[in-house]
Amino acid sequence: MRAVFPFSAIVGQDDMKRALLIAAVDPGIGGVMVFGDRGTGKSTAVRALAALLPQMRATKGCVYHCDPDADAGACTDDCPSRAAKGAVKTELLPTPVVDLPLGATEDRVVGALDLEQALTRGEKRFEPGLLAKAHRGFLYIDEVNLLEDHLVDLLLDVAASGENVVEREGLSVRHPARFVLIGSGNPEEGELRPQLLDRFGLSVDVKTPTVLADRVAVVRQRDAFDRDPKVFVSAWTKKDGEVRERIVKARASRGDVSLPDEVVECASALCMKIGSDGLRGELTLIRAARAAAALEGAETVTTAHLRAVAIPSLQHRLRRNPLDDVGSAPRIERALAEMFDA
Amino acid sequence: MSVAAPGRYDPWADALSAAALLAIDPDGLKGAILRTLPGPARDAWLAAFKAMLPAATPMRRAPAHIDDERLLGGLDLAATLSAGRPVASRGLLSESDGGVVVLAMAERCSAATGARIAMALDAGEVAGRDDRHAARFMLIALEEGVEPDERAPDVLAERLAFALDLGSVRVSATAMLTQAQIATARADLARMRPADERTIESICTAAGAFGVVSARAALFTLRAARAAAALSGRGAVADEDLALAARLVLAPRARFAPSEQTPEPAPPPEQSADEDAGSAEQTEADAAAADRVVDAVQSALPAEFLAQFLEARAERRVEARARGAGAAAKSAKRGRPLGARAGTLRSGERLDLVATLRAAAPWQPLRRREATAASAALVLVRRGDFRIRRFVQRLESTIIVVVDASGSAALQRLAEAKGAVETLLADAYVTRARVALIAFRDVSAEMLLPPTRSLSRAKRALAELPGGGSTPLVAAIDAASVLAQSERAKGRTPLIVFLTDGRGNVGRDGATGRAQAEADALVSARGVRAANLAAVFIDTSPRMRPGASALAAEMGAAYAPLPFVEASAVANVVRANAPARR
Lengths: 342, 582
Known about the structure:
The structure holds two protein chains of two kinds. Chain A is α/β, with parallel strands linked by helices. Chain A has helices spanning about 15-25, 40-50, 80-85, 105-110, 115-120, 130-135, 150-160, 195, 210-225, 230-255, 260-275, 280-295, 305-315, 330-340; strands at about 30-35, 55-60, 90-95, 95-100, 110-115, 125-130, 140, 165-170, 170-175, 180-185, 200-205. Chain B has 22 helices and 17 strands. Chain B is flat and about 80 Å long. The chains are: A alpha/beta, B alpha/beta.
């Protein structure tokens, strides 16, 4: 196991870090799309977050490492939890991060007939794919805009439903596949279809820091890490621990955070003002605000939370003139300023 | 010593230094791209590199079309069948652990293969069937492209420290480093103190000045400088080391020359506001160090790398990258694989072997029981098991807009034409078509924008288009025709849209003169028709002239006189003529 760069040691990129934390607190938010150049720490951040998350309790022997509480009875027939009477044996596993390579075939992603079993024993068995591996963790796709459209459709569909349904080669399998989809891409290399973009919960832009001091800090931290990963990681263990604590607490308290009516009204008013299509924007906005409040340890969602998550929740859902260089973020900022600062 | 003397730039010495640095810090520098056609320079470099590595270092050659099974490892189907139990095979990447992978013809390497190698480079391991295998290797990507856009996948270029262009390098006898020297340098490197603030700052400043945004590049520069210091037996990074590292790492990544107005504001050195006010002298010294790094990079840039050229190169690279995803196999059966279906083997059909085996597999025990005892076949495949590969081909279209920016087209019309092109672009965005832009004025036709889907770039190119001058229509028709044919060769459907009044006055030989120019234009137009290219001719002259319609007829183009160049009308004409989409 190679050492992973600590999450708290990442310099800057606060928008991305906040979006990832929100997705970690509430995986139901529907994935995060990160736009930005290469070498801005996108994959580092994803890996760092996964390494920091608390280990998860999983049914021992289950290929889908299913959650003994949440997935009880929902897992496939092969799952030991089906056969076991009484308490199910469990084990602690790290949160999985699965990389989806660009050239991945549909077989590899959704799973296929297990050729090995079929050839050697003549059994028709399902060989789980990357979606199964990513269950309860993160599925990271670098350059999602270069991925074949049909695969992106499939991924988003599974991410939204939390279940992978395989009907092929005489197999009929359904297994839980709840994961946080994290896509990254560079808009200069071709854009993502708007209808795909809309299905990502949050969208953030990362930029190379323009301040020299930040760039120097990035290089210094990374160099220190590369020279002696163990020492570097242990120096940041405490800070990472604090972040972990916040996530764990926020996960537990998320449901108890109260949501006043005026905040919901505010969210709707904002969405109407900027003209976002459909209700997905409002729903995501509210969910993200709730998660942000829980992360802060607040008991009530306030408009300040709403404001903090408005741009990542909405900026990719606005109808825009494709030739308009100005992104959607300034429009949202203006609307926010008009609503709250007036 | 192979480190070049300061002030004089010797590409071969630098290339050898790069090899030495790789040998010293393989984990940190990851490898290099060698851009050149096969020849003595490349062989000499590879031989020198091999000589510097420890004797037992594995060096494996991978073809660009290597399949994933071989690259990453997988089930060894033949061995599995004969053994009757699963036999895993290791992939080439994990077999090369601790060594070197030489990727031949990297410019032919697909984006997918590139992504897999990049993942292994990042992780230092590959996920096998059952467990993970270590795969810490250096990658030497051999780039044999002739065209500027024939390049290794960008995911790889980003992750390899060096890119050496050996195309015009003269191999000279240079003292070789011995393995013992390398080993000493390795040991020194391990003991070296961390780089000081000043070093890191000058690297970041220099990177910013050349528009190199990736943090990886800055890190590579630092690691290369440290390795260079270790090689020279110094305990800390000196200016020469930084200069060498910057030449090797930053120069190939430069996007613009620092003298030019930088698109992103380059951070001024006094930005680090936290520093003591009293350290002005220190700041000055830092700036001087950064300047030296910038100078070093500039010395390594060939003279013809003028600012615009760099810009153009950066754009081409972006395009070459973007193209990777769409490029499919150029066979009669091209397109994206759509899985396999049951079928019979006719000529021209391609058998999907794995899918066929999958289909046959569950029946094996049953069939074996039924089969006559004499059958020695390991797998009993029946006709019904055959699976045929299917492909779908997405009809991609490329709209090549040829804009007349000459004086005869009247300057105020140019603005209208730009508006029309913008509408076309917005349309192309919806239909996922590519757009290329050719403008002609003065003496030549210039490709402002190679085929792209990026609207922000298209818009920028259009905004920068100047007007005025004579009308080299012939050159424009020829350029459009060449581009359209190359697009068609890539499996896309081109459509050329001319926005001009058709009154060319520059002939094929570049001489001004209306009669000759119009005769030449007719010849070029015939070429378009002969190549069977779809074209639309939008006549923008205020009054209809027989000349323009004759030209359109000669090239077999749809002719639309639109004296007012309304954006929506132009878009309608193009829509009506656009290739049908499936």
